[in-house]
Amino acid sequence: MVLLDGARTCGGRTCRGNGVLALILAGALLCAAPARATRVRDLARFDGVRDNQLVGYGLVIGLDGTGDKRTTGFTLRTMSNLLESMGVTMRPEEMAVKNVAAVLVTATLPPFARPGGLLDITVASIGDATSLRGGVLVQTALEAGDGAVYAVAQGPLLVGGYQADGPGGTRVAQNLVTVGRIPGGAIVERGSGYELPRGGDLTLLLDRPDFTTAQRLAEAVRRTTGREAWALDAGTVRVVVGDSLRDTQVELMARIGETDVEPGAPARVVINERTGTIVAGGQVRLMPVAIAHGSLSIKVQTDNKVYMPGAFTPAGTASQSVQNSSIEVSDLGGSFISTPGASTLEDLAHALNTLGVTPRDVIAIFQALREAGALQAELVVL
Hints:
Blueprint: E1 2-3, E2 7-10, E3 13-16, E4 24-25, E5 38-39, E6 44-46, E7 52-61, H1 73-85, E8 101-109, E9 118-125, E10 136-143, E11 149-156, E12 162-165, E13 171-174, E14 179-188, E15 201-206, H2 211-225, E16 229-233, E17 236-240, H3 249-257, E18 260-261, E19 268-272, E20 277-280, E21 285-286, E22 289-307, E23 320-339, E24 343-344, H4 345-355, H5 359-372, E25 375-376, E26 378-381
Parallel strand pairs: 4-20, 19-26
Antiparallel strand pairs: 1-4, 2-3, 5-18, 6-15, 7-8, 7-10, 8-9, 9-14, 10-11, 11-14, 12-13, 15-17, 16-17, 19-20, 21-24, 21-25, 22-23
């Protein structure tokens, strides 16, 4: 990707901006580059080979007075239930939990995980604890969407940030201290249960469905593996395995995953209005179009003055305030540019940099081009 800011050479020409315009153009936009092949494993996944999300509710103990407050009822009740399971009976109102925090624990169960494997977990406070630094997660069951327990988590937290409070309400903080991680902090108790089909067909699911990409992927698989493959739709490719390869199916899947495919590049322009960033694909083209760019600036300034009574004025004379307002209107000279047929965004970017437009102006121009039918691409505004 290329960042346009200031002077830059594009196709033998010097594109000069005003130091404000930032256009991020992917692929062959400003300095065109040939399309590159991508591995199948980066474009698609095998049907059934997927991650599963796990979540659990637990307690972090051992905090240095940075835990939940006494008003956090669910932390008190959870602590009371935990102590009761250990033979200690205490009512919630008899407890202080400033060293304890209620948390949610999340993890991802990868495909083919087996009991005894380790998972990295993330722990996040759900109460009013101010920090989880130095805390230890108490044994917590992690469940999937079906309600079954697939892992159990426990261990000391690693918190990457810090926080220090000073007098007068001053505070210094770096990153978040209410979220921590435990590498290898969960033990898999139950696998996902997925097994590779032996024989039959394999199905590839594209991460971004596209008819061109699906067809090219099927052709590449046939060329590389010699197996029959065809695209069922824009997002699905079927590969015939057969009984003769049932014992070498993992090898076949590995070969398919490393096969190079040139994906179809969509004609799409993505605009982020909050940051003034524009990202465009290399297939974007412009029809013949003319663009006028101008700027109207209106400045309103108020100057309030207060006149105090003189030294020998009668008693009770109040001060007087005078409000002076001025309005300045300036209309900068507009510029008019035109682009020939089948122009690329490289040509348009060079023209816009010549005009010295701002990111907000660029966004407005792209939206107007789309409405006029001159921008042959999908426009996505974030």
